[in-house]
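Sanity check

After download, print the first record. It should look like this:
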Amino acid sequence: MIKYNKPVLSNDTIFDKINTLSSKLSNVLIIKDGHILYKNLEDEYNDIYIKSYDEAMTDKADFFDQTKELYELDDDAYQYNLENVNSGLFIHVPKNKVVAEQLHIFYIQESVDLVQNTTIILDESSELKYFEYLYNEGQASINYVNNSFVKENAKLEYSGLSLFNKKAVINVTRNSSVARYGTSSIRIAEVNDSITETKTNVYLQGKYAYAEAKTIAITSGVQSAKFRQLIEHQAPETEGYIENYGVSNHESALEFEGVGKINKFMKHSIARQSNNGIVLGKKAQLDANPLLLIDEFDVEASHGAAIGKIDEEQLYYLMSRGLSTRDAERLIISGFLSPVLEVLSSDELKEDFKNQVQNKTL
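Expected structure tokens:
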């Protein structure tokens, strides 16, 4: 059972930056230090259950009674989250409900160490497009967990952008279980300045289940960040794809570890992953560790990594067209990280991402 202790809200101010980004969006929730400060949902969301844990732990008591059994992770940070939640959000999409418009959640930290726990349940043949923006103002330890359950023939499009500053230490865990014919697509952009550790675990539990785990990250200064993705095939004829793009600048250290795991008897499954990285600073580090754990013969599996400096021919070409070295590098990096732009639903979010990339490549 999750232990939930909601903190007292110090103030109900929404930061100008968040107001600017959210004002052009529809279907928005803004949550600060465990409190929903703003909620604006269109009629399409009338049938969707979206509540804080204050209400959900009563309305969905049966679910919370079995929570610890749903993901048995040997992970201290994950267990700490379950026992110290102070901000919780529960989203339940009923059977056959297809939500066309994206849901935007802004999670904000200001005054307390944030232990956020979010649950997403998609019943059979339902669909949801979910976007999260993670942001902090105060000095804090932030522990974020998102558990999603994608039932038969359901589809979850999960995307996010995180912007944590140097005053934060971050641990993020995203878990997703996918039933027969289900799809879980997780695409995350990380432009933090914080010490960061992120884990994405997807479990393909039903035949023909499909998953993507895509991470785009940029580090700078003396920052260290580690991103681990696991897609485990627990049923035959499942597909899993891991894709990483990274840029490491100055003296920062960026690490990707992708694990494609196909268990015994999971025939005709596909596990593929790719890692691409650019190293800018002379003292910067970027490591990619693609792993395949295969316990079955009749499968398809592959991995690869391409890490290096900016292509000199591309740089020369752009400079020959009048760009400075710095501007040419930024243009190349922006193009390299462009896959994230397809999941950002407004010009303001796209511009915010571009500005953060520019700041981290100075």
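If your output differs, re-run the checksum step. Summary of this record's structure: The chain is about 20% helix and 45% strand.
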